[in-house]
Amino acid sequence: MKLFYSPTSPYVRKVSVVAIELGLAEKIERVTKVVSPVARDELVAASNPLGKVPTFVTDDGQALYDSRVICEYLDTLGGNKLFPVSGAARWTALTRQSLGDGLLDAALLVRYEGFLRPEDKRWADWSQGQMTKVTASMVEIERQAASFGKGVDIGLISIGCALGYLDFRYADMKWRDTYKATAAWAADFNERSSMKTTVPAA
User: Does this model's pTM top 0.90?
Assistant: First the structure.
């Protein structure tokens, strides 16, 4: 199995955490690729027409993308431990995955606006609109945090990686000062070896 990845991508981190939790990390070859909306890598694009990471290639040559699909595929190999099979637990985990990924989507768009777009073409209202989504997501995570418990599933991994991205790229938010229950949960969740070993380097 092969994973095209960027060390700073939060979606790649999500896949990496899942692989570690399932005991599959050592079976995956990692190919480092730095891509962006304005820097297409043709090797990645040969497997994924979107040209994005993470892109995953199975042992039989099937290309999988995006992180949601890759994570669910890995779960089938690792004993179906992270995606509840049915019932309320499944829908809760999948919705939390969407919450974490949605927070990431908005935060990344703001990052691209400020980092990639020429200064004279930046749109403050666009960035503010995306940050409103980040804040609303944090409010919802805080509302739910007391119910997260000590377990691990795809929803909690997604939220954990989203919070990690805020630490990495938005440290000045100091979100722990506002979202106390989330901070308490994250402090415990980040002690997992899968989270410790995947923290992106500055």
Answer: yes
Q: Report the Cα–Cα distance between both ends of the chain, in Å, rounded.
A: 28
Main-chain dihedrals φ then ψ at residue 47, nearest 5 degrees:
-100, -25
Residue with structure tokens 């990431």? 104
**CB 100, CB 162: distance < 8 Å:** yes
Residue whose token pair is 């991205």: 165
CATH architecture for segment(s) 87-194: Up-down Bundle (1.20)
Q: Among 56, 70, 91, 62, which residue's Cα sits nearest to residue 14? A: 70
| pLDDT (tens digit per residue) in 56-100 | 999 999 999 999 999 999 999 999 999 999 999 999 999 999 999
Q: How many angstroms separate the CA atoms of 66 and 48, rounded?
A: 9
Domain 2-77 has CATH 3.40.30.10: yes
DSSP β-ladder status, 2-5 and 29-32: parallel
What are the residue ranges of helices labelled H in the chain? Answer: 10-21, 42-47, 67-77, 87-115, 124-144, 154-169, 180-189, 193-196
- Closest Cα to residue 157, out of 196, 100, 113? 100
